[in-house]
Design goal:
Strand content: 15-25%
Bound molecules: 3,4-dihydroxyphenylalanine
Structural class: alpha+beta
Number of domains: 2
Shape: rod-shaped
Helix content: 25-40%
Distance between the termini: 81 Å
Order of helices and strands: HHHHHEEHEEHEEHEEEHEHH
Length: 335
């Protein structure tokens, strides 16, 4: 009987010291497990003289009940304490999802275009978006009274400083700091004071190309743009050149790709012409060479420009340029 009282007292003390469920379980096993101290006592009852058995049985049973209550009480206390620590956190709520970002379709297309030209030996050159009037117009043979200026509604920052209306000024900046041969591609943002509609937006992107060396001809220009068209849109692409005018090229040509939607037979996308106009190109005007100190007797070159939005719209069948700038995730997520 004394042994049982000791067991209960010791177990009580140990239970009180438990700081977690794990320790509590160890105490339970130690006293109530298959070889636990109280279990062994209860098993020994049968060997006692018959007259002692009932009293011992009662004491042991009471001890077991007390110990079980103490274990349960302590467990409840530990749980309550743990819950108090994380007050306000509902652990049954689903976890937070993190959105995975992706590249903007204009970035995707720009990188693709740059990659294609890089494969043909073009390096990337960049220039500022806030540009001097000199680089955007004057050095490109477009002086103040030149009628071509009226076609580009320009945002002026201050006297002689503007937001570039085209990536062509990068041609001049590049030639100013390097001597021929020059073979660069120049992607970048441009600005014009246009009213937004399905095909115009005051901010847009262009990619400029420039190649200057000895004996560069218009045939080289045709070759490089045809090669680009086939890599960008598929092997069936044809390229058409038609006379045009740009102040910084002579001769100048507007170029078009066979319609990506119908392949050239005529459809709604190409307004039944079979052709899609892409942008301008031409042989660098000697007047531009004069501004950068190149000898136009020794060197010749071609230049071309293209609108990134236009290419992206054709590639993905997008019918409104404004979609690129609205940041509607339902649109952006598709690329
Ligand atoms: N910068 C011209 C534009 O925005 C496009 C262009 C035409 C670029 C002819 C060129 C070029 O390099 O040779 O309309």
């Amino acid at each position: 009987m004394e042994n049982v009282r000791d067991i209960v007292r010791e177990a009580g003390a140990e239970i009180g010291e438990c700081v977690d469920e794990h320790a509590l379980d160890a105490v339970r096993v130690k006293y109530l497990g298959r070889k636990g101290r109280l279990t062994l006592v209860m098993r020994g009852i049968g060997k006692l003289p018959p007259e002692e058995r009932p009293e011992m049985g009662k004491a042991a049973g009471a001890a077991k009940a007390a110990m079980t209550r103490a274990l349960e009480g302590r467990l409840a206390a530990l749980k309550a304490k743990a819950a108090g620590k994380h007050k306000g956190v509902d652990v049954t709520l689903p976890g937070r999802r993190y959105e995975v970002g992706r590249r903007h379709p204009l970035t995707v297309v720009t990188e693709e275009i740059v990659e294609i030209f890089a494969g043909m030996g073009f390096a990337v050159a960049e220039g500022p978006e806030v540009e001097l009037e000199y680089y955007n117009f004057d050095a490109l043979n477009t002086p103040a009274d030149h009628p071509a200026r009226d076609e580009q509604d320009t945002f002026y920052v201050s006297e002689g400083v503007l937001l570039r209306t085209q990536t062509s000024p990068v041609q001049v900046r590049t030639m100013e700091r390097t001597s021929p041969p020059v073979r660069v591609i120049s992607p970048g943002r441009c600005y014009r004071n246009d009213t937004p509609d399905a095909t115009h937006f005051p901010v847009f992107h262009q990619i400029e190309g420039l190649y200057v060396d000895r004996d560069v001809s218009f045939a080289d220009l045709k070759g490089v743009l045809s090669c680009f068209a086939r890599q960008m849109f598929g092997s069936g692409m044809r390229v058409r050149f038609r006379p045009d005018f740009f102040p910084f090229t002579e001769p100048s040509a507007e170029y078009a790709f066979s319609c990506v939607a119908c392949g050239g037979t005529g459809c709604r996308v190409c307004k039944n012409t079979g052709w899609l106009e892409i942008a301008g190109s031409g042989m660098v005007d000697p007047e531009v060479f004069r501004h950068v100190g190149y000898d136009s007797e020794e060197f010749s070159g071609y230049a071309f420009g293209m609108g990134v939005e236009r290419i992206a719209m054709l590639k993905y069948g997008i019918n409104d340029i404004r979609l690129f700038y609205e940041n509607d995730l339902r649109f952006i997520r598709q690329f």
